[in-house]
Design brief:
The protein is built from one helix and nine strands. Strands 1, 2, 3, 4, 5, 6, 7, 8 and 9 form a nine-stranded mixed β-sheet that branches. The chain is globular. The model has no long low-confidence stretch (mean pLDDT about 80).
Length: about 140
């Protein structure tokens, strides 16, 4: 009888196992704020530094406290990813304020399904796209 009971308890334990739950919004607080694009490194090792003259707020990425990622004007980016990861754990944006729609009338989206965000230092954000390239952002003061 004990073996049968142990088998059922083990079976229930395995059935109840599931993959990691998404990060809580409190866990993404280190990346909340305004970030300015400083460079892009392609998969071939080449590095591109954007010309920021006259760009204003267009090269800013803003990560809000609710997890929503917008540009410097508060608009959604064109073709946003479906999943976001910070420190290899998924987080789900939970909008608490209105979001301006993106201004992308002629963009044919081939959206990257996920965005991976890591920090190499407290004020340096590394964003990896599905194509393998990495964008480097520096926190705006």
């Amino acid at each position: 009888m004990n073996k049968v009971l142990l088998f059922f308890l083990t079976l229930i334990a395995f059935v109840q196992c599931k993959k990691d739950s998404p990060l809580a919004l409190a866990d993404i607080q280190p990346i909340v704020g305004e970030w300015r694009l400083t460079s892009y490194k392609g998969t071939d090792g080449s590095t591109t530094v954007p010309d920021t003259t006259g760009q204003g707020r267009s090269l800013l990425m803003v990560i809000r406290a609710d997890g929503v990622i917008v540009d410097g004007y508060g608009r959604l980016p064109c073709c946003p990813p479906l999943k976001y990861f910070f420190k290899e754990r998924e987080f789900v944006p939970q909008p608490t304020a209105p979001i301006e729609p993106s201004i992308c009338p002629f963009v044919l989206c081939g959206s990257c399904p996920e965005m991976r965000i890591n920090m190499s230092a407290p004020d340096i954000l590394l964003v990896q796209s599905c194509g393998g390239g990495t964008s480097t952002y520096v926190r705006e003061k």
